[in-house]
């Protein structure tokens, strides 16, 4: 009966598609279906981008939030179907995305309140150095001196104009060789102990 009404009402295929695209359940206890999830997500993502502007531009948190929020907002603006939105974002159902976006807005407010990036001008970090033995399994992250050959090559490049024009490939090879030498030196350092 319902299908006959839709098909005879002039909407035809479009109305049938709309009827087919209705989600009945999320399958998650306590998480209700949001019939206008796309519009809700667009609103939440737009609000998120507006509120994150209170965080300093150079902070990693702001950059990360802006990046994934813009990406998700773009998908929501490009797609009308909730299934396509879920597939393209790939982070769960639209109802879960709504909860995530609401949680992100709460976190932004808390981050602004906590101000973790603000360091007082008079703050001094105390570095404590002592002779306590560090177990071998704990990485020490000590910088290894660059090989003397590196500095000779660098001086040669600086002094010879013909060598200053290096291709990207040659530069990449040089850098990867340097990384291998540094990694090799680090392994030797770890084997020898505290050096």
UniProtKB/TrEMBL annotation:
GO terms for biological process: respiratory electron transport chain. GO terms for cellular component: mitochondrial inner membrane; respiratory chain complex I. Keywords: Electron transport, Membrane, Mitochondrion, Mitochondrion inner membrane, Respiratory chain, Transport. InterPro entries: NDUFA5. It is a peripheral membrane protein. It comes from the Eukaryota. It is found in: Mitochondrion inner membrane. Belongs to the complex I NDUFA5 subunit family. This is Uncharacterized protein. It comes from Oryza sativa subsp. indica.
